[in-house]
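Let's do one together. I've listed all components of the complex below, 525 residues spread over two lines.
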Amino acid sequence: MGAREGVAIVGIGIHPFGRHPGLTGRYQGAYAIRAALADAGIGWPDVQCAFGGSAAAGNPDTLVGDLGLTGLPFVNVYNGCATGGSVLTMAERAVRSGDHDLVLAVGFDKHPRGAFNASSAMSGLGDWYGETGLMLTTQFFAMKIQRYLHDYGLSRDILAKVAAKAFRNGALNPSAWRRRPLTEAEIAASPVLSHPLTQYMFCNPAEGGVALVLCRADQASRYTDRPVYLRAVSFRTRRFGSFEVFSPWLSPERVPGPTAEAAAEAFEKAGIGPDEVDLAQLQDTESGAEIMHMAETGFCRDGDQEALIRDGMTEIGGSLPVNTDGGCLANGEPVGASGLRQVYESVLQLRGQAGSRQVPGEPRVAFTHVYGAPGLSACTVLSR
Amino acid sequence: MATAPIAEGLFSWPEAPHLIGGSCAGCGTTTFPSQPACPRCTRTSMREVALATRGTLWSWTIQGFEPKAPYTGDGPFAPYGVGYVELAALADGAAAVLVESRLTVAEPGQLHIGDEVELVIVPFRCDADGNELVTFAFRPA
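Okay, and this is what the predicted structure of the assembly comes out as:
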């Protein structure tokens, strides 16, 4: 399908990520929406339908009380850390189906400090699992990368290298939370939270909001002279045999996870291959996740990451810049917003508006990937 | 003061301790704990099985900070090991399974993928009535 028969993103807005005492998550969501509407040159009454996601900061549909009671359908969506991806999936379908011409997607959140304290019951697991200290996302990511480094003979050094790149990119991003570059030595020497991962290799629960205005691609020129086309969105859950977070047991059978399936489907739907992508935003809950997701999304083979990272492939000036805005590591993780932040960054880059972190060479194609508990993923392919 | 398991149905104890899994009568898939339906073939004919008590370490980490609620560990926090242990298939047709468990070892130098480990029932915390609650873990074999 050609880009102009599909869906375009014509407005983007962000509330800076970080910690904002005194500001509610809902405020940050409304702020992002107003920014996105202004970017598209429209008003709230022009929006025909909306989808919103927030894990801990209130029901998104209640924002109509702040923005205006226009009677539009406004649906709340939640899928763990992949919530932003599922919000966008629903918004894209609402336009592509022909039901609506102009649709808004919003994600925002506000989490307390410290690791997420997940609920066993909410995930269909026994209370003993959380009580005995096994229900931590940090443990899953640590055990996944521990096994991965072992299986492919990769050096632990690349974990600090990936985190250092995130903070370097974050330093160039006015919307990022952590804007101080850290050396690989500082990152490696920070407290070990879950071996082999240290404090600065993990993202932190945080705050922020992002909103996107989507429209029929053939109407995009009404709102912008630089539309970005949403060529594909794919959302998948886990199959039997994939290694996923919050698993009291696993099968020894191993199959590709939801990331690999969502990525492959997105590329197929878009008719665009990984080799045509100019920049990618990959879920980096911790630095090992970025490394593994590079292969799962199809950008390299398992085990090739170390050489590619050492060669600078994933740097802003490299052949495939990854997490150009600093990713989750530098922005933190407001669960409802992260997936949309990746798309916001991709749109900025494809428009050529990313300032000092602009990917050189006028990039044409971008890719985004979120991953959430208990094993689901959403991927997008975007192009100018 | 009595001693009790952290939850019923997880492990048999104190005689001949073993984890209680579920095995699908249709495809042999083993789950832990037991559950009503098979996530592989979708049948609802699961039976309880006694899982192997020795296995090999498939992956591991060390929990370096005290978890927030719903964690209920008491006393001063000490880092603990966490791993997936591969337990072999059973003679009655139940397939092999990787079980997530606490490890008695919390030293990175003493943990290696492929290590032989064995089940042990260990004290976890005291409840409001002073009873000692025990849970399962694996230790070097």
